[in-house]
């Protein structure tokens, strides 16, 4: 039965994402108060997003907040303050941006915040926006009004109660709000607190509405008559982009689609359900995705490839199987066995074939291509490592998905944080799969292209190169480290004995999980044929308390940057098995079979 369902799933999903028909989005323009101003200067050779703010209400704010951030399609949109933002006294605004997908945010005190997607196709684009802000909705019958904000660190219990004067509420006594600080009102409606005048959400976006001066020229006043009953959503009109209106509708549909798909993630919690129920539910959602894609022009094909890639990552039965495996994380060997078994299953083959099909059509240089989750690409290459037969069957070479990330980086501006991050992850992928030459070339290219990135300036590049050079049969570098509860530790003091060197930290979960295995290893060599040395990347006082509380029986010292650089430590835990003559005979041995693996390596070395 399960095999039949998996086969059905594979056949059903092997359809291309297509977009066959045009889509138009009707727009309305509302008249309201307009305050004119001058556009700001723009940097040359960049696309431009500019616009004017219209106010459809009585309140005249002292300033406006306008921001641009990279678009992230999400079932639960979260408003955060974009890095590229302006707090302005005029209603005209302008941004110089690179081609891409963005969210434009416009906010003014007493009005519904506008958050709308913007498409910037190329460097010559000029996108003009008319933002119409609607007053926040408010129902009659307030029992009290309080003020909160930066002055009380946005804590509701620090809010100050206002006093009603005729039809408005005013703040008595000394004014706590300083120029440039943000504030909101809290209203009580029949015992229910309403925060920021819009929704029953006790979570202020305090970085969003911070103005240059105090409301109404110095006196903070709340006038209920300024707010509609009920409130309407603010809206935007676009000119200067053929597909702009369709894109706004498309993003809205995809947000709704993802929100409606969320129950799939929790399907396994229903004990009466089954894997076949989950598979059928997934197939229904996939068909819904295809229907949405077919309503939009072919111009958005790359966007739908990206969105389907993300949808499969989160909702395919493969993702459900991985989630169920998380309960085995505490048992590394059992988890590894289960994962290998899963990679050989028809469910994983269905997932891999679909992802490979999408990836082959993706254009890494398209403005629609995004790499929010580089781990997905790297895990697909990990799957290839376990299932090379799938690579042959679907014509996918080793490191195919890592290569997509590297190609995407070539189209990014030099110096971007995303580019440095992609190359670093790619280098780690090559190293972890034994492709040391590609790892070395990648990090050298990273050093040249991003010389000021934290990866380079922080020493990670040099550590990675040292790790690649420090292989089996290399000589372990000498070190001198402060000993916990003693004077110092020298590797040379242990010459003539096998040494198991463990780089760890008290804050590192996998390191702590390895402690039982290290204690067993220590007990397995009662006569001192093997010495364990722990080097902790930690505060000496924390390490001393930790060792005492956990009753760690072997010697430990405190690591430092010089030692970690010499050994190429870029992750914890990292272990080395060192022979009596100082030669490294194994790296990264750990897990429940640690004692067996160490004895096996020592026996092989002694047999030489």
Put the structure in a nutshell.
The chain is α+β, with helices and mostly antiparallel strands and 608 residues long. It is 37% helix and 19% strand.
Topology at a glance:
Blueprint (H helix, E strand, L loop, with lengths): L1 H12 L19 E2 L12 E9 L8 E7 L13 E5 L3 E6 L2 E9 L5 E7 L5 E8 L10 E6 L10 E2 L1 E3 L2 E3 L12 E7 L2 E4 L25 E2 L12 E5 L4 H22 L9 H20 L6 H15 L1 H9 L6 H12 L2 H16 L12 H13 L1 H6 L6 H11 L6 H16 L3 H14 L4 H4 L2 H10 L10 E3 L5 E3 L7 E7 L4 H5 L1 H9 L6 E7 L3 H11 L4 E4 L2 H6 L7 E5 L5 E4 L6 H13 L2
Parallel strand pairs: 2-8, 19-20, 20-21
Antiparallel strand pairs: 1-2, 2-5, 3-4, 3-6, 6-7, 8-16, 9-10, 9-13, 11-12, 12-15, 13-14, 17-18, 19-22, 22-23
What does it look like?
The chain is α+β, with helices and mostly antiparallel strands and 608 residues long. It is built from 19 helices and 23 strands. Strands 1, 2, 5, 8 and 16 form a five-stranded mixed β-sheet that branches. Helix 8 packs antiparallel against helix 10 and helix 11 (417-432) runs antiparallel to helix 12. The longest helix has 22 residues, at 244-265. The two termini are 53 Å apart.
